[in-house]
């Protein structure tokens, strides 16, 4: 019977445990054995793993994070300047692993895929709250992040209305605006600023001033990757110039200071940060993650290796891992969500 390793790599994300549970339970029922590798590829390097039986994955579907732990920077092919993959493969042979299910983002996928030619075939499961993966319509974790943004906006509205203030909320999302856009729509934001649409500061000021007169307050939802038209680097320029992720964040504070100079109202900013990644996944994310786990188990059973689970429409499918790596799916120019926003009078920070 098959012996399958499972690991989670990169940042934590609501739904990881639901995937671990889904893939493990499905595999166990085919008679396979399952071993959880601890803290991503770190566990491969440090030889830390444990057998996952039905009991080990029971009662975890609603828990945030990952029971296996994770690691951002453990790369066996470049570990402290050394390629330790031969040693890792010895460990794999000792454990007797026939295949690996790697749950993670870009980084995890490209490392995992290098084990396939070494004799450890890989199935990938995509993970990101940012929803910015090519070839998959939705990623688990996104719905949870959006629901937290929506709740935060509703809570900020209280202060905005009571004080007649401008409240700026900064969301995660890296170089993509999905979380800010859907969270902003769900939470009733008046202005939504995303990286795909560099904003015009003068226009944001104009909208706030108009609202000062009419509604008396303004809620702004800004993605951490958003930039003004005439300042900072555009998303594309950054992606082209640097393969390393930059530290994002802080844009809400910058916008607050810029707005303060031009408005009568007081301006306050909130950076939501990792709150968006923590806690229990929404039911939607639990179901999607469970389906991804189930599908990954099917792929292992069918020998569909070097591929990653994806969601097309409402069906699970798979795509070659190389095709997904290092590509970001941004909010497209013709997205109906953008139309919906502007039709409702929500400003995207662009002059009409
Ligand atoms: O990709 C997920 C994400 O949460 C992004 O939205 C954010 O920019 C980044 O990870 C934060 O990474 P870290 O947890 O390493 O600070």
Automatic annotation (TrEMBL):
Domain spans labelled Phosphofructokinase: 4-299
Active site: 130 (proton acceptor)
Family: Belongs to the phosphofructokinase type A (PFKA) family. Mixed-substrate PFK group III subfamily.
InterPro entries: ATP_PFK, ATP_PFK_prok-type, Phosphofructokinase_CS, Phosphofructokinase_dom, Phosphofructokinase_III, PKF_sf
Cofactor(s) annotated in UniProt: Mg(2+)
One GO BP annotation of this record: canonical glycolysis
Residues flagged as site, Important for substrate specificity: 107
Function of the molecule: Catalyzes the phosphorylation of D-fructose 6-phosphate to fructose 1,6-bisphosphate by ATP, the first committing step of glycolysis.
Record-level GO cellular component terms: 6-phosphofructokinase complex
Catalytic activity annotation: beta-D-fructose 6-phosphate + ATP = beta-D-fructose 1,6-bisphosphate + ADP + H(+)
Molecular function via GO: 6-phosphofructokinase activity; AMP binding; ATP binding; diphosphate-fructose-6-phosphate 1-phosphotransferase activity; fructose-6-phosphate binding; identical protein binding; metal ion binding; monosaccharide binding
Class of this enzyme: transferase
Pathway: Carbohydrate degradation; glycolysis; D-glyceraldehyde 3-phosphate and glycerone phosphate from D-glucose: step 3/4
Keywords attached to this entry: ATP-binding, Cytoplasm, Glycolysis, Kinase, Magnesium, Metal-binding, Nucleotide-binding, Transferase
Protein name: ATP-dependent 6-phosphofructokinase
Principal localisation: cytoplasm
Keyword Nucleus annotated: no
Residues making up the signal peptide according to the UniProt record: none
Entries under Pfam families matching the protein: PFK
